[in-house]
Amino acid sequence: MIVATRILRAACLVPFLAVPLLHAQQPPAPAAPAAPGAPHEFKDVQLLKDLSEDELTMTMRYFAASTGRTCASCHAIDKATGHLDFAAKTDAKKTSREMIKIVQTVNAGGDEFGKLKINCGTCHQGQGRPAGLQQATMMTTEQMVQANTMQTMMALRAANPPGPGGPGGGGGGRNGPPPGPPAAEVLKKYADALGSAAAGMQSRELTGIVTTRTAQVVPFSIKQKGAMYLETVNSVPAPQTIGFDGTAGWMKGGERPGDLKGFALESALRGADMSLATEIQTKYPKLESTKRANFTLAQGGAPFDAIILRGINGKTSEQFIFDAETGLLMRRVTRTDTALSGSLVEQTDYTQYRAESGVMTPHKIVRSNWNTYDTFAISKVVINGNVDDSSFHKP
Question: Smallest Cα–Cα separation from 333: which of 369, 384, 372, 292?
Answer without folding.
Answer: 369
